Amino acid sequence: MAQWRELGRHIQALGDIGTILSAMRSLAFIEARRIAEGAQRQQETVAAIRVAIDNLADHYPRSRPRIMPARDVRVLIGSERGLCGDFDERIASRLGTLQGPEPGARIAVGSRLALLLGEGGVAHQAIAGAAVNEDIPGVMSQIVALVQAATQHDHDAISGLVVIHHDEHGDVQHTRILPVPMEPACPCWLAKPLLQLPPRELYGMLIEHYVFASLNALLLASLLAENRRRLNQMNVALDQLHDRIDALDRHRRRARQEAITEEIEIVLLGQRPGGLAG
Question: How many domains does one find in the chain?
Fold first, then answer.
């Protein structure tokens, strides 16, 4: 009797966990929809700024500084929350495959990634990552502050900025933000733009906007990939939970049937003279 009752309590507890997971899945789905819309708009903003940079450099070649970075500041964007599989492990693995200038400061974005890198003996600076869309502006400001602090003794080094991240499809990428690649990303304007500022000054202003917009876009893409990974993990977990509940329920029904059968046998034995004497 006690066994099937205990199984019933276990099934109820698993059902409560399933309810919580379903609510978390719904929230993750809503958040992913919101992030996807923002990520698309931000990518369009980055593309528009890149058009302006490329055309300014094409029509005013001296506006683009010819500086080769002495080192690269590397920003690694991981996860702040769990239930996203090997999200952070894949970022950490990509770090060892990068080539280019000498690596400078490493900035880990996301508590779980920071912990993973620390366990691997990788020296880095760490900040909390974005848990929701609204956290991104604050995270972006912290990244910029750390990049500036890391390069304050070498003004050329700020030209090297690489971000290791997941794109919106969940693939790990490394994106160079600074220096802006020399190859134009778009066709050149036919007409030479008329400027109200010196070309070099305007170029610097565009680069500043480009850095902020690019970091924003990459943080959004990473958060979108994280939420999609979390959705997949929750779907798998819920499927396994339902299978577990079904198996336990079958076991509970068998145990209850056996308990009932045992009670009937005890009653029948109790009606016999020998059973009554015992």
Answer: 1
Count of other CB atoms within 10 angstroms of residue 19: 10
71 forms beta bridges with 102
| Residue 183 located in a structural domain | yes
For residue 35, what are the domain limits? 26-230
What is the residue-level pLDDT of the chain in tens, covering all 278 positions?
A: 567 788 888 889 999 999 998 988 888 888 889 999 999 999 999 999 998 998 898 889 888 877 777 788 899 999 998 788 899 999 999 987 877 666 778 999 999 999 999 887 787 899 999 998 899 999 999 999 988 887 765 554 456 899 999 998 899 999 999 888 877 666 677 788 889 999 999 999 999 999 999 999 999 999 999 999 989 988 998 999 999 999 998 988 888 888 888 888 888 887 555 444 43
Element (H, E) at 231: helix 199-271
Count Cα neighbours of 238 within 13 Å in the Cβ-side half-sphere.
Answer: 16
Please state, as a whole number, how many other Cβ atoms lie within 10 Å of the Cβ of residue 229: 19
Alpha carbon distance 127, 225 (integer Å): 19
Q: Which two tokens stand for residue 90?
A: 């894949």
CATH number of the structural domain spanning residue 83: 3.40.1380.10
CA distance 56 to 51: 8
Residue 14's nearest CA partner among 241, 235, 234, 231 is: 241
- Go through 93-107 and write b for each residue having 16 or more CB atoms within 10 A of its CB, e for each that does not: ebbeeeeebeebbbb
**Is 156 inside a domain boundary?**
yes
Distance in angstroms (rounded) separating the CA atoms of residues 112 and 18: 25
> Sheet of 125-127: strands edge to edge?
125-127, 102-109, 71-77, 161-166, 172-178
Domain assignment present for 260: no
Residue 267 within a domain:
no
